Amino acid sequence: MKLFYQTHSPYARKVLVAAHETGLAGQLEVIHHETSPTRPNDDVIALNPLGKVPVLIRDDGVAIFDSSVICEFLDGLHAGRKLIPVDGEARWQALRLQALAQGIADSGIAVRWEAVRRPEEVRWPTMRDAQLQKIAAACDFIEQEAELEGVPTIGEIAVATTLSWIEFRDVYDFAAERPRLAAWYKSFSQRPSMLATMLEGDTHD
Ligand SMILES: N[C@@H](CCC(=O)N[C@@H](CS)C(=O)NCC(=O)O)C(=O)O
Hints:
Layout: E1 2-5, H1 10-21, E2 29-32, H2 42-45, E3 55-57, E4 63-64, H3 67-75, H4 88-117, H5 125-145, H6 154-168, H7 179-188, H8 192-195
Parallel strand pairs: 1-2
Antiparallel strand pairs: 1-3, 3-4
The site of glutathione has 14 residues, from α3.
């Protein structure tokens, strides 16, 4: 299988960490692609009309996206412990945590548009601050309510990879005054799956 990836994408890293955690990483040919709404990548658009990575090209040639769908597909390919619990409350907790992490990443990207990516004259600080507020509220929720410890699910993988990007791009200091989240993140970051998939590179608009 081929994975259209980006070395500085939180969503792409989530997929690759999930592949490492499930023992499937060796079956993926990882191909870096730069993407941006302002610089369409025709190779990516040919597979995903939204022009976004990650995209997984299955062995039968069919392209799968987005990151959450790819993770679910990969989770069906192995016989080990499932990253997405098959049923019960654990399933909904994991999927809700993943949704929260996706929302943090989406807001983080919106913050970067207003802070650095848009031409200066069309940046809107009110929107930047509103998106930062969402990130802060989501991090508070995780600090207070999420069950982070224990065997990692797709929820923890999504939170860790999103926070790694928030840290990498210096979007928001999520560790300040959130000791539980900070300690968990530090420990999770030492997992082999995380160490094998460090973020790198610049955004090109
Ligand atoms: N919901 C998607 C988001 C993917 C996404 O936004 N990817 C970014 C890279 S971090 C991208 O390719 N952006 C290009 C664009 O917005 O045109 C997922 O979870 O895979």
